[in-house]
């Protein structure tokens, strides 16, 4: 049986440079990272200033040290109603698509943002979906020129806010270069929290081959609201997704998210226990 292919977001670690990323990931016995350059090193890097050389500076070093760059994080607002804001976001993403091979990244990922600044109920409209869809079509068409996979992550307050819309997006874009990152915690809200098992099963059944990676984070209900907590400290049942990647999608990239470094060893132990047991 194949092992759990577990990684972590680089910006969830306390690091100052690429060397410290490799050191800490290796010490944790993880195999890959999600790397968002500007989030990992906000004072040193600006996405629009990245070049083939600077992308290779990271990508080649990670590869040389046996750390895969599984996901290039480029989380933009591709759904803004402000055309100027949206155009700039898409231009940034396209630039990063062109650098994917230099990073040696397996895919580039984003959520779908918001039609305005911050949360708004307008994100749940057909208009918001169409804006997001059209942006994704544009990005995927660009990615096809470079042989790059674009991975979109659904999120409860975004225009792609559930697994049915994620499936609709994949079907309508109809490109092998578009895939989905499944983050089950992103699909949970106070109204469906009690039906967590149904939500997770529905996502796995409907998305199937569309899923290219998993994000693993945990949550609790607190004062009627969802609060994200370190993996293993909440109430998310990871067994269905772990069973899925163990028996149906072996070695799929699974990435720890929103788990502070101090909690990472315990989170790994938690996930490994259920992976071995399922």
UniProtKB/TrEMBL annotation:
Residue ranges constituting the Xylose isomerase-like TIM barrel domain according to the UniProt record: 32-250
Pfam families to which the protein is assigned, alphabetical: AP_endonuc_2
SUPFAM superfamilies xref list: Xylose isomerase-like (SSF51658)
InterPro entries according to UniProt: IolE/XylAMocC-like, Xyl_isomerase-like_sf, Xyl_isomerase-like_TIM-brl
Keyword Acyltransferase (UniProt): no
Keywords per UniProt: Isomerase
Cytoplasm as UniProt keyword: no
GO MF annotation terms: isomerase activity
Protein name: Sugar phosphate isomerase/epimerase family protein
Organism: Enterococcus lactis
């Amino acid at each position: 049986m194949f092992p759990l292919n577990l990684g972590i977001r680089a910006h969830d670690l306390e690091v100052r440079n690429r060397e410290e990323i490799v050191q800490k990931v290796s010490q944790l016995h993880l195999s890959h990272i999600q790397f968002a350059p500007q989030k990992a090193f906000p004072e040193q890097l600006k996405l629009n200033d990245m070049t083939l050389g600077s992308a290779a500076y990271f990508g080649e070093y990670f590869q040389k040290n046996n750390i895969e760059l599984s996901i290039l994080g480029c989380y933009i607002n591709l759904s803004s109603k402000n055309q100027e804001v949206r155009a700039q976001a898409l231009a940034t993403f396209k630039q990063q698509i062109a650098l994917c091979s230099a990073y040696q990244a397996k895919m580039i990922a984003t959520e779908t943002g918001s039609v305005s600044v911050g949360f708004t109920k307008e994100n749940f409209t057909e208009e918001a979906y169409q804006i997001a869809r059209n942006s994704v079509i544009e990005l995927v068409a660009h990615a096809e020129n470079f042989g790059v996979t674009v991975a979109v992550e659904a999120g409860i307050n975004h225009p792609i806010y559930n697994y049915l819309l994620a499936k609709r997006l994949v079907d309508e874009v109809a490109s092998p270069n578009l895939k989905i990152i499944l983050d089950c915690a992103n699909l949970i809200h106070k109204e469906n929290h009690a039906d967590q098992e149904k939500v997770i099963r529905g996502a796995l059944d409907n998305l199937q081959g569309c899923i290219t990676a998993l994000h693993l984070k945990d949550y609790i209900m607190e004062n009627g609201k969802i609060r994200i907590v370190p993996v293993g400290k909440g109430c998310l049942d990871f067994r269905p997704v772990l069973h899925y990647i163990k028996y149906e999608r072996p070695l799929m990239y699974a990435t720890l998210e929103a788990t502070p470094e101090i909690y990472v060893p315990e989170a790994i132990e938690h996930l490994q226990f259920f992976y071995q047991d399922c």
